[in-house]
Design brief:
Elements lengths: L35 E2 L2 E2 L5 H6 L7 E8 L2 E5 L2 H9 L1 H4 L8 H6 L11 E4 L2 E4 L3 H8 L2 H15 L5
Antiparallel strand pairs: 1-2, 3-4, 5-6
Length: 158
């Protein structure tokens, strides 16, 4: 069993084979600027909690904030307020879509809140634990390729 505290700044080599995913097209629900299920970003996870608590925490509609076409939930008013001041500091990279899929497939895959990493102060999400293990084999390389691919992949949302 892999136990993670995913605030990592350097790569760790892991050998993992086999990656699958759910490809999202612009015609499917939840395909916004930021990945959302029924209009809720990050499947309801509080994006600030990844940075402050080092783990995914499901937020509440009581502490919600609308930004970039979706509703974000937070575990507290203070987290909501921090996000509102600077959403880009907390919002996941690549619109919250699977970072590995953007980098390697140039496609939009859904993500789960439990498959995540913070690298150099930026939040990256992945489709599954298996994909996250692959992502961990070359985080820096995947980020470089993802950053280069994102402008074109992002067009799939339009």
């Amino acid at each position: 069993m892999l136990i993670r505290r995913n605030i990592l700044l350097t790569g760790v080599a892991l050998v993992v084979a086999g990656v699958g995913g759910m490809y999202l097209t612009r015609d499917e629900p939840g395909t916004h600027e930021y990945f959302a299920t029924e209009g809720i970003a990050l499947r309801g996870a509080d994006p600030v909690a990844y940075f402050t608590q080092g783990e995914p925490v499901i937020g509440s509609a009581e502490f919600s904030y609308d930004w970039s076409g979706v509703t974000w939930h937070f575990a507290s008013a203070s987290h909501r307020d921090r996000f509102a001041v600077d959403p880009l500091a907390y919002a996941p990279q690549y619109g919250g879509y699977c970072a590995w899929a953007v980098a390697e497939k140039q496609q939009l895959y859904s993500t789960q809140p439990e498959s995540w990493t913070v690298v150099d102060g930026k939040l990256y999400l992945n489709y599954s634990d298996g994909v996250e293990e692959t992502w961990n084999t070359d985080r820096a390389g995947f980020i470089t390729r993802g950053d280069a691919a994102w402008p074109e992949v992002r067009k799939l949302l339009m």
